[in-house]
Amino acid sequence: MDAPHVVLLPFPAQGHIKPMLMLAQLLCHGAGGFNITFVNTEHNHRRLLNLIDQTAFSRRFPTLQFMSIPDGLSPEHPRTGPSLVDLFFSTSSVSKPEFRNLIVSLSQEPTCIIADGIMSFAIDVADELGIPVITFRTYSATCTWIYFHLQKLIRDGEIPVVEGNGDMDKHISCISGLENILRRRDLPNICRLEPDNPILQFYITQASKMARASALILNTFQELETPIISHLQSIFPTVYTIGPLHLHTLIDSPSKNSSSLIQIDESCIKWLDSRHPKSVLYVSFGSVIVLSHDQLLEFWYGLVNSGKPFLWAIRPDLVVDNEPNKIPDELKLATKERGCIVSWAPQEDVLSHQAIGGFLTHSGWNSTLESITFGVPMICWPMIVDQLVNSRCVSEIWKVGFDMKDTCDRSTVEKLVRDLMEDKREEIMESTVKNARLAHDSILEGGSSHGNIKKLVQDIISIHS
Ligand code: UDX
């Protein structure tokens, strides 16, 4: 009998493709020995295959094949910033029938489909074709749990959250497990939309479709989010917490680029090698959010005025109204002295480098988890979706950083950088070290994530036989 065949469908963005491809690698190479079909959109398929060393990759993962479907957007579409949401609607309409056609054309019938929660149209396709489907939410358990309360938040009048109405710090009481934690300002930013807004409605539909999947996979670890994971078990009979995925040794190392859609610039590692231990602040805002030129300058002045060395990943499309000629000479000069700027960094290698002492992050889930596992405390400047929740957990639950949500001025940046790197470092280091240890323990033999991966593999084998 053939090995089980698993089809994986990520949402077409870097922060989703990376954990999904790491899971694919685990199932293919180590834990499962399964046949894997990894379905990207055509746009990302091209980007990924341009950067990957295809020969080395297929030698390492011989039973993993990449396939692609259209995403329904024009090649020139930016697919970042506010226009990222266009992908929600275009994938549900255009990619859905294409995905169905692809599934029925496969030479080996899939044992199961693992689809990103945002690509919940895959659940309709799987149901129609009688194929078991597991949903993989690439966010934290906490944010996933909140998404199941959107209708309740509307009924309770908590949505829309109105920015600047003075009540932003009021606690939300209708989400079990988060009563004394979450304030209005910490809800995902879609909660700032009117209840009938199509984007908010998309998230509501997505949550109800996800609940039809046979199980939920999360890239988190039991010890980090225990109470919320128990709550999620009231919706999903099985929740596999299998993270932090990037720690599993069977996965391709980040510097081999296998999941990067953007060319990595390794030169910053040499620069880091020349720095004192724990002296450098790493700054990155992930792959999709965008800044205005004014925001860029506020961050830049804050960093320079803090006097700390910094390494900053500035994507070519990070700044919407980019005006390179309008960068003041004083900033350029100070950066030359104690800064390093690259367009895209080997982030995991950076975070695990001995010179790194802190991370100024947009609080994307992958960045948050990577920072936790490498024991690097954070300053969080969240902007969209789950980032607002992650930053609250970082500061209030896990106590591994500070949340500067909703403010972006040079003096706040300067103060928080000093707090993180010096003045208030002691407050958070104990917890930072403890969480890093728990993360590493979870993937060792006998650890919670290690056990859940074994269980996931076993469950897929039993569907197959
Ligand atoms: C998106 C959303 O913005 C985020 O909120 C959600 O949790 C996941 O999807 P993204 O903005 O890309 O993700 O952020 P993040 O989740 O942090 O993922 C970025 C990934 O890119 C990380 O794994 C990080 O290691 C990698 N990265 C980032 C690099 O390799 N180099 C860089 O310079 C910056």
TrEMBL record:
Reactions catalysed, semicolon-separated, are: 7-deoxyloganetate + UDP-alpha-D-glucose = 7-deoxyloganate + UDP + H(+)
The terms under GO molecular function for this entry are: 7-deoxyloganetic acid glucosyltransferase activity; UDP-glucosyltransferase activity
Q: Give the main EC class.
A: transferase
According to its UniProt record, the EC number is 2.4.1.-
- Keyword Glycosyltransferase in annotation: yes
Query: What PROSITE patterns does the database record attribute to this sequence?
Result: UDPGT
Asked whether the keyword Heme is assigned, the reply is no
Instruction: Name the UniProt key words of this record, in alphabetical order.
Output: Glycosyltransferase, Transferase
Q: Which family does it belong to?
A: Belongs to the UDP-glycosyltransferase family.
- Listed name of the protein: Glycosyltransferase
* Biological source species: Forsythia ovata
